[in-house]
Design a protein that fits this description.
alpha/beta; 10 helices; TIM Barrel
Length: 291
């Protein structure tokens, strides 16, 4: 059996050096405890993903039993998240150099994957947030885009913390959110397409929240590496980790911390999206004036 976590955020690039150091040490400790074989560092495109990868790589050290995969969770012009995974750090560096957040559309995903030799993952398509492909673009676009992806995220364990607010006693008020959380943790099979792999991601933003990782009973063939293996569109299943042994009180504290992080990220995204819109509008106006 081989294990992968295809969605992980070190979340260390917009904090003080002292906080970064403490958080990285905790990340490395928890990753060693979980013992996942391959971990995709998929920092948000607007939070310095290349630096985030390098910080986490250095924290794990050269003798780690976990192989760190360079990646990015990029955001499209429509506000949709798509994950790109790269074979080498230099490929991530090339991607970051040429692609800016909100500068592309979801229909560009397949071409971008070819241009940068990347593996694509459609994360949390029905997320309670505002960046899921199906939720933002509708089912028709979801099917059209996802059938061209390598993977769709069938389990995102960040929703494990949110489910506390969607208990039975809140069913009437939170019926829609309850369904979105359930589908984020276990994507219904009617939305899993033939020929598209199943990704499992912890979607960690803080150490110690890697509740589930993906596992599959497959082995690399001679001459293959992890990138070749993932090209085969493996169907990973979620496997619990010991991080689930968290007390209810600790879960609520983690949920509050994560909620603050979500609000902070929303502010950053809104600012960068507005700047992108202003630059594009000024460019269009200048072009019309010149004509």
């Amino acid at each position: 059996m081989i294990t992968f976590d295809l969605h992980y955020h070190p979340n260390v690039c917009r904090v003080s050096p002292s906080v970064r150091q403490r958080r990285l040490l905790k990340h490395a400790s928890h990753i060693r405890t979980v013992g996942v074989d391959y971990l995709a560092c998929t920092e948000h495109a607007y939070k310095n993903p290349l630096d985030g990868y390098r910080f986490l790589r250095d924290a794990l050290g050269p003798y780690s039993n976990t192989t760190l995969i360079p990646g990015v969770e990029c955001i499209s012009r429509e506000g949709v998240d798509i994950i790109f995974l790269f074979r080498r750090e230099s490929d991530l560096e090339d991607y970051v150099r040429h692609v800016r957040p909100f500068s592309w559309t979801v229909t560009d995903m397949e071409k971008m994957a070819r241009d940068f030799n990347a593996i694509t993952v459609v994360p949390h398509p029905f997320s309670p947030g505002k960046t899921g492909l199906a939720k933002v673009m509708g089912l028709e676009t979801y099917y059209q885009v996802t059938e061209k992806a390598h993977y769709v995220e069938v389990h995102n364990s960040a929703s494990h913390l949110m489910k506390r607010f969607a208990r039975k006693k809140f069913a009437k008020q939170f019926d829609t959110i309850q369904k979105q959380i359930a589908w984020t943790m276990d994507l219904p099979h009617e939305y899993r397409m033939d020929g598209v792999g199943w990704a499992v991601g912890s979607d960690v933003h803080f150490p110690g929240q890697q509740f589930y990782i993906g596992a599959a009973d497959v082995a690399m063939q001679p001459g293959e590496d992890w990138f070749d293996l993932l090209k085969g569109r493996i169907k990973f299943e979620p496997v619990e980790t010991e991080a689930l042994d968290m007390s209810l009180g600790m879960e609520y504290r983690c949920l509050i911390k994560n909620s603050r992080c979500v609000l902070s990220e929303s502010t950053i995204k809104a600012h960068k999206r507005a700047k992108r819109w202003i630059r594009r509008s000024l460019s269009d106006f200048a072009a019309k004036q010149a004509a």
